[in-house]
Amino acid sequence: MRGTGLQRSLFNEEIPKRVGHLKNNKGKQLFLIASILFSVVFWAFESFGSSDSKSLTIVLPARKVDLLLSQMKLGLKLVTVEIQDPVYKKTKAYDGFRLSEVLALAGFESKSLANELVFTSKDGYAPNTSFDNLLQQSAVLVFREHGKKDFAFEKVLQGKSMITPAPFYVIWEKAPSAEAVPWPYQLVQIEVVDFKVKYAKLYPLTESAGTSVAKGFSVFKSECLRCHSINLQGGELGPELNVPKNVTEYWAPEILKSFVRNSADFRLRDKMPSFLHLKPEQLDDVLAYLAYMKDHKIDHTRK
Ligand code: HEC
Q1: Span from the CA of 208 to the centroid of ligand 1 (angstroms)
Q2: Which pLDDT value is given to residue 177?
Q3: Residue with CA at minimum distance from ligand 1 atom 20
Q4: Residue 129, Cβ neighbours under 10 Å: how many?
Q5: C-beta of 238 in contact with ligand 1 (< 6 A)
Q6: Neighbours of 300 (CB within 10 A)
Q7: Which protein residue has the closest C-alpha to ligand 1 atom 13?
Q8: pLDDT tens digit sequence for 68-103
């Protein structure tokens, strides 16, 4: 679709030259009409390509749907929300749709077993949150800043570069804290899953609730999974932590804990956030979970 914009401008520039070659007025007129029609078609094509045709993939337990913005506009109530935005660190107003309604439009039935949402961004960042959060804290799928064109957002700093949150960005109207829920931008997919099924390879199935491993898993799930995979399940922004070598096999526990607390002490320009808010017991639990997974590796030698 991008190519059509280029073609359109080349075509327009050529019109005066070509018109000059035409001898009679009728021909001139016809040519002008034809070229205007052509431009309109190209314009329609291009604006279609650059805005409404951007879709969001919704993966439900039983089906997968690509929802176009135009379909959402037709089927859903547009909401405008003003929030204190933790990504921009200032007040922002957006236009979008209630995420629960977007999922319903895609065919999600709330009685299904699914209990977790997994968001996937362009760069492989894949944060998750519980389905209950969605209902209690009113997530909104936004597609533009209020009053701007579709997919128009002010650029925001990510690492060292300025990026746009487009096409889609999930914000929360009511959240107990910004850290309690994910704020995924450059969103391309939302998956509604039964966590135990989707993440069967990293779920500590043999552990009962309350053990250090189970508690560590729950910390890992909310703090680490969005960037790291275990047994190749999870986010891809950071490295896989279990196969072929589990991190506890080559990091000493104390070093591993201080790395996780603040990796910038170890590596400049590092892309992992600090976890100074985790209590020492929570770090111990995460390590217990990681060590547990060492004995539950997938068979990564099989191709
Ligand atoms: C925002 C993404 C992100 C989150 C969240 C995150 N990490 Fe990381 N992590 C990274 C990246 C990127 C690296 C690669 C090295 C670097 O940038 O320092 C990394 C590296 C690591 C390493 C070193 C692996 C190695 O052998 O080099 C460990 C261990 C680790 N992370 C554990 C964790 C744990 C445990 C959590 C949760 C408490 C966590 N990470 C949360 C992005 C993340």
Answers
A1: 26
A2: 81
A3: 238
A4: 22
A5: yes
A6: 12
A7: 238
A8: 999 999 999 999 999 999 999 999 999 999 999 999
pLDDT digits (tens, 9 = 90+) for 229-255: 999 999 999 999 999 999 999 999 999
* Selection from 64, 55, 133 nearest residue 99 by Cα: 133
Cα(234)–Cα(223) distance, rounded to whole angstroms? 12
Q: Are 85 and 153 in contact (CB under 8 A)?
A: no
To test ligand 1's pocket by mutation, which of 224, 226, 259 has the most ligand atoms within 8 angstroms of CB? 224
In the structure, what pLDDT confidence band is assigned to residue 225 with cuts at 50, 70 and 90?
Answer: very high
Written as one letter, the residue type at 71 is: Q
> Can you read off the two tokens belonging to residue 214?
């189970």
Sequence length of the chain is 303
CB-CB contact of 173 with 102 (8 Å): no
* Ligand 1, atom 8, residue with closest C-alpha: 272
> Rounded distance, CA 123 to CA 185, Å?
10
Using pLDDT thresholds of 50, 70 and 90, give the confidence band for residue 61.
confident
Token pair, residue 133, equals 């959060």
Of the ranges 18-32, 141-155, 247-261, which one carries the lowest mean pLDDT score?
A: 18-32
Is 93 within 8 Å of 80 (Cβ atoms)?
Answer: yes
Q: For tokens 């929300």, name the residue.
A: 81
Check pocket membership of 225 for ligand 1, CB cut-off 6 A.
no
Pocket flag, ligand 1, residue 228 (CB < 6 Å): yes
For residue 184, give Cα distances in angstroms to 117, 191, 244.
Answer: 12, 13, 29
Instruction: Identify the CA nearest to 35 among candidates 52, 14, 21, 20.
Output: 14
Cα(224)–Cα(209) distance, integer angstroms: 19
